[in-house]
């Protein structure tokens, strides 16, 4: 999926509050289930071919797109999951190993980069065909590329300067191979994980048409033609009720085809009998079932109505009951980080936030272990830097591996008092302004009080409790934190990137991470959130060394580029690092095998199987 | 009567038009607009500008309103930003499901509440009256959410005789084919309404019992049965009919809590989610439907009352 706050889950919380009474009641009333657990694949059992599985989607996740090029508003996580079962992307990553793509699940062999990192050659797999019998070729990738190039502004994932702007030339070498010349040298890991994963061959010999019933041609090779073809295909993609029947979407090359796609969001994938690759589905059908609320899902889960569901946060106390009903309960870690940005451009507190020692004092006041263990019931992982802490991989810098700022209120307080702050009536007040070592720091005026305002998303007890814990810790070192809760969209609206003179710059701290603040693609570089000019660098964090390291992580071929970046930002604290909540706590029937909980929120249902 | 109707319909049109203007203005004065909410935090300024241009947010308010109204006059309610469907098709899918739920709940509630109210009215201050009043108050005071959950736990988990969720079919025929699944949601919706309707009915019966016409009917030798079920009940229905008229928008606006607990996507949930995601076209479309239902409901209530109550009939000629 694309780097972002998961949109499907952004809609997921409205009724969470209602779940409180429900869950507590249900917990009190449940007294265990049958106590029998059928064959667990982990403990042996015989994998079966065929069968059906039902997967529960998060509340109000409504898949609404099938076309491999998503337009704005159609980027929900489950759209990608469904699409890539039907139309194979060039490369797919499995977040349990972010160092290389899961070649089996994609349409091409591993990419080959030139020595200078300025061109890449890709060969398509030999055994893949479309459902109409045509081979999957390099021309099918060119078709995708031409449509993107001519319509990039309509593509939801387009970022200026990135794909397709960074491709100088696309050349077909032969039927199976193509080369792309890049506008500059790129880090191969970054380019494969964050750019090539967006590419997806599309059946040119079936889709290169400009109108319904039109002849197939090479229209995509001119910009005008590409625009017409794109508009036609987008128009067809707008007919959601026809997804299961429109002949266009039948020309699949993935392990599944669409059997059902209802307007309320239920999607049933059926094994593609015409799939010719090496990753064929075991199951006959997989149904992705929508739910109106987490409570509704929990009710159905408790009645055994889904094979792969989840426990809402407040129902975690029911783990034993659910397990006794034949489910495994496992947290699904997300390839994400969670944080609170400082608004460095806030006219009042900006100068304060710019002082590293203040950020250090704040970070030392975040009791991440307790928050993760007590408030999140161990379903969150403390995070110390810009790279996801779990699963630990080669991108984690040494500094980030071990928390450089352990929870220590005395040390935090000492940092403030040694820099000229005196605690008056419980609030630290600057008494020694100036830029010296024992002074408050440049731009901080005498009499400035450490009173921070935090805008936080509403609707989650865990988040509310986390913020109260933070407020309590900070108050002990002389920082008064006032908390204002708003719905997520409103929090995002009210914490834009801004200039000090703008009215919109009145926010100081902002939290939007109940379900993780930022989900990364496989290569967790920070060009979108921590580079000085990044679009989602909400707090306008600006540090020349950080910029250099971000740039190196995407463009240098050095294998340590990411680690250097990770270590530096872990220490430089562009934001307050917070524990990262699990993507979800899954309940998986013990009869369902082959499940990998991909931290990047992807799924490979073709590898699921039932056991006897 | 014709003049009355023409006048009321005229008023109704003005009310609906005003509602669209007010809701439109309210939505469009929300700072930031829907782009950030729809496109997410990663959206670039260019993407937001493109979204605003595509949906006309870069035009003046009157211009935007005119675009909306002219679409409306052509039967076009616009398209949802988030669901990849037209608003009219979304409402078309949801309204029948919602009406099945809310309509049947109300019907069940009335069938129970009217006789109950009459019965209680006649046995005022008896032990059974107190007992039923207590039960009804408990039903009224219990949050629907909690009630729904108790029903699920008791009838779907402890004594598994009913399904935990409402029927998942897309069509009405499909819904009724799995009618067992409708029992719990309808029951959950009906219980609170029983309380409201039966209380109104009870007090109306109490009022009527003391009326002269009741004494006259009794004096003329009418049987108690006839007095109660013909004279008193008919006259006591007036407040219920008035309430029912105003219940119409409630029927159309759905039952958010029941829909969410029983996994039954209806109008309530559609509206709620649209509000969460700033999906303006859905919000406008749903408000319009509810506004129309409100004015029609009050009109129907007036007409029905005229049929029941000759005094009202006289007043509207």
TrEMBL record, chain A:
Lineage top rank: taxon: Bacteria
One record GO biological process: peptide transport
MF terms (GO), sorted A to Z: peptide transmembrane transporter activity
Subcellular location: Cell envelope
Domain Solute-binding protein family residues, every copy: 104-518
InterPro entries: Peptide/Ni-bd, SBP_5, SBP_5_dom
Region described as Disordered: spans on this chain: 32-57
Keywords noted in UniProt: Signal, Transport
GO CC, alphabetical: ATP-binding cassette (ABC) transporter complex; cell envelope; periplasmic space
Gene3D superfamilies: Dipeptide-binding Protein, Domain 3 (3.10.105.10), Periplasmic binding protein-like II (3.40.190.10)
Entry-linked PROSITE patterns: PROKAR_LIPOPROTEIN (PS51257)
Signal peptide limits: 1-26
Family to which this protein belongs: Belongs to the bacterial solute-binding protein 5 family.
Family annotation (PANTHER family): PERIPLASMIC BINDING COMPONENT OF ABC TRANSPORTER, PERIPLASMIC OLIGOPEPTIDE-BINDING PROTEIN-RELATED
Full protein name: Peptide ABC transporter substrate-binding protein
Organism the protein comes from: Nonomuraea terrae
TrEMBL record, chain B:
Keywords annotated in UniProt: Cell membrane, Membrane, Transmembrane, Transmembrane helix, Transport
Membrane topology of this protein: Multi-pass membrane protein
Subcellular location field: Cell membrane
One Gene Ontology term, aspect cellular component: plasma membrane
PROSITE patterns recorded: ABC_TM1 (PS50928)
Gene Ontology MF annotations: dipeptide transmembrane transporter activity
Residues in ABC transmembrane type-1 domain copies: 95-301
The keyword Ubl conjugation is annotated on this UniProt entry: no
Top-rank taxon: Bacteria
Chief location bin: membrane
Alphabetized Pfam families for the sequence: BPD_transp_1, BPD_transp_1_N
Bilayer-spanning residue ranges: 12-30, 99-118, 130-156, 182-201, 240-262, 282-308
Similarity section: Belongs to the binding-protein-dependent transport system permease family.
Name of the protein: ABC transporter permease
Origin species: Nonomuraea terrae
